[in-house]
Design a protein that fits this description.
about 160 residues, mainly alpha, elongated
């Protein structure tokens, strides 16, 4: 039987990863397709405003939680926890960490370039930004969805 602390940490890992995966999926399936329909002079300022709003405390807590809670769940394994559970948690943590790597190495530099391109024509800014940002976002969305599925699997094991 799992200990109460191990159960709590795994539950928090599942919840935080589910919240973040939902955010990524909504962005992938709703926000970006909606923005894609805008003209260049609508898309670029809208994306700049979104990038200003997203990295707020609530988002940052969830962003960190998706790696902290799975790592803590590995560090505090429950008594008698099956090896399968720990492997699933480790794999989920790996996917979440890769998600963060893509975000930090791919999306954030593009967001920063977008923010500093105020003097460039919107058509050029969008051409340099949108396809690359979307490619990175698809990758990180897939990774965090995989992390969520793996952590749910661990919780059900």
């Amino acid at each position: 039987m799992m200990s109460t602390m191990a159960d709590l940490l795994l539950a928090l890992a599942v919840i935080s990863t589910g919240l973040y995966a939902g955010f990524m999926l909504i962005f992938q399936t709703g926000v970006m397709p909606g923005l894609a329909r805008l003209s260049d002079d609508g898309f670029v300022p809208a994306m700049r405003r979104i990038n200003e709003q997203v990295p707020r405390p609530v988002f940052l807590v969830v962003f960190l939680a998706v790696v902290v809670f799975p790592a803590a769940a590995l560090a505090v394994p429950g008594e008698g926890a099956p090896d399968t559970r720990m492997w699933l948690v480790a794999a989920g943590l790996g996917c979440a960490a890769l998600n963060h790597l893509v975000t930090i190495a791919g999306n954030i530099p593009l967001n920063n370039a977008l923010a500093s391109s105020e003097s460039s024509p919107d058509s050029e800014v969008r051409a340099a930004f949108e396809a690359r940002w979307n490619r990175y976002h698809r990758i990180r969305t897939g990774l965090i969805l995989a992390a969520f599925v793996l952590l749910v699997g661990a919780a059900l094991t």
